[in-house]
Design goal:
Layout: H1 11-17, E1 22-25, H2 29-41, E2 47-49, E3 59-60, E4 63-66, H3 68-74, E5 79-82, H4 89-101, E6 103-105, H5 119-124, H6 126-135, H7 139-154, H8 167-175, E7 182-186, H9 192-201, E8 207-211, H10 215-227, E9 233-235, H11 239-260, H12 262-273, H13 277-286, H14 291-304, H15 308-318, H16 323-330, H17 339-376
Parallel strand pairs: 1-2, 1-5, 2-4, 5-6, 7-8, 8-9
Antiparallel strand pairs: 3-4
Helix pairs in contact: 11-12, 11-14, 11-17, 14-15, 14-17, 15-16
């Protein structure tokens, strides 16, 4: 079983034995994840370099980002670890050239989660992998499957050389679009693959559905399609959009209540999540000084079984992408055992914070109303009215909405 898997040693194990300085090529999430695995395996990062267009004298993860030429001037010999996916042929060719001059590793790291693809993982899932291999219809398909598995284990791109097709070959021999296509692009980004398809079909199609969950990318998509005068049926669909709205609602409501009854808000967090009061200030600082974020982070920790320290670390790393990205990285995503229970609890506590806030406001409005009536009985009552010249603004608006 698994005779088609020839690689047993992972690229991480090879890098542990590497005597040359190890430089990471690229920045972003891929580089961060690779450096995290480096730490686990005790692999030292000598530095980071990027393509010339991306070098502007800045730092990444404590390293000054260099050009390849700078590294070559500094080191007589070194190993390169690729930290990003190459999406166009010019970049692929550049990477191959680097691989001819220096030892090149292309490690496989997960898009979400933290598991690594190793030979041990394959052994644990031997029955499933063997079944897929045997179900494939022809020898070439089995060769492609085996090569990808061996590449993912070893990080050696030579496994991909004989199974890689050009873009033209993919459209001509695999996709084979005709002139009357109903084309669906799931994760359309900025419309680049739509334009490729239209080039092949000479702008002939029946209907195109472009689905893009990221708001910024969706704007780019619309702009590019208008620019190229392509009439599309756009659908902005994301299972995370509705979820993100619920998270925003939770945070907003929690912050409203914390703004008027912080001591009670903290007390409820301590009771609900079995958290010492003295730790809440530290969580507050780590969660962007936002009490709504603290409440949400505690709920994430409780649902996922993670330590709050880990949740705060994920927030620090991914907060610029929103809480939905943090949830995906932690494992609370559609289809997971955590997803529905998490959002059920988020909805429940969101409603609770809203009720506590409204109760507080109703109570204080009644108090001020009685105070006002009491003064109306004074013989100089014509001089009294309710002048709101205080600093708080809870009573400045009669709309107790959720925004």
């Amino acid at each position: 079983m698994l005779e088609f898997i020839t690689e047993k040693e992972t690229c991480w194990e090879k890098l542990q034995k590497e005597h040359r300085p190890v430089y990471i090529y690229g920045m972003g999430d891929g580089a961060i994840k690779i450096m995290s695995v480096f730490k686990k395996y005790g692999i030292k990062t000598a530095g980071i370099f990027a393509s010339d267009d991306f070098v502007r004298g800045h730092y990444f993860q404590g390293f000054r980002v260099m050009r390849l030429s700078e590294v070559e001037e500094r080191e007589s010999d070194f190993a390169v670890v690729l930290a990003f996916a190459a999406g166009y042929e010019e970049l692929v060719d550049r990477i191959k050239m680097i691989g001819k001059k220096h030892k090149l590793y292309v490690p496989d790291v997960p898009v979400i989660g933290s598991g690594l693809f190793t030979y041990e993982y394959c052994v644990r899932n031997a029955d499933k992998l063997q079944e897929v291999y045997e179900l494939l219809a022809d020898n070439y398909s089995r060769k492609v499957f085996a090569s990808i598995i061996n590449f993912k284990i070893s990080g050696d791109i030579s496994h991909l050389e004989n199974i890689t097709a050009t873009k033209t070959e993919i459209y001509r021999d695999i996709i084979k679009p005709n002139l009357n296509e109903h084309y669906v692009d799931l994760g359309a980004y900025n419309g680049d693959t739509i334009l490729e398809m239209l080039e092949i079909t000479r702008n002939r199609y029946v209907r195109i559905y472009a689905m893009e969950p990221d708001r910024k990318n969706f704007k780019k998509l619309c702009k590019n399609m208008r620019q190229f005068k392509v009439l599309l049926l756009f659908i902005a669909i994301s299972c995370s959009m509705f979820a993100q709205d619920r998270l925003s609602l939770f945070i907003g409501r929690a912050n409203k209540y914390a703004s008027v009854e912080l001591s009670d808000y903290r007390k409820r967090l301590c009771i609900e999540y079995n958290t010492p009061n003295n730790l809440l200030d530290d969580y507050y600082r780590q969660c962007g000084r936002d009490w709504g974020n603290v409440g949400l982070a505690l709920e994430i920790a409780k649902t996922s079984g993670r330590h709050m320290r880990d949740v705060c670390d994920y927030y620090k790393r991914y907060h610029r992408h929103g809480w939905d990205r943090v949830l995906i990285e932690i494992g609370i995503r559609p289809g997971s055992v955590y997803y529905n229970p998490f959002y059920d609890r988020v909805n429940y506590h969101s409603n609770c914070w809203h009720e506590h806030y409204c109760s507080y406001c109703d109570h204080h409005r009644k108090h001020h109303h009685k105070h006002y009536k009491k003064h109306k009985k004074h013989k100089h009552n014509k001089h009294y009215r309710w002048d709101d010249d205080d600093d708080d603004d809870w009573d400045d608006d009669d709309d107790w909405d959720d925004d």
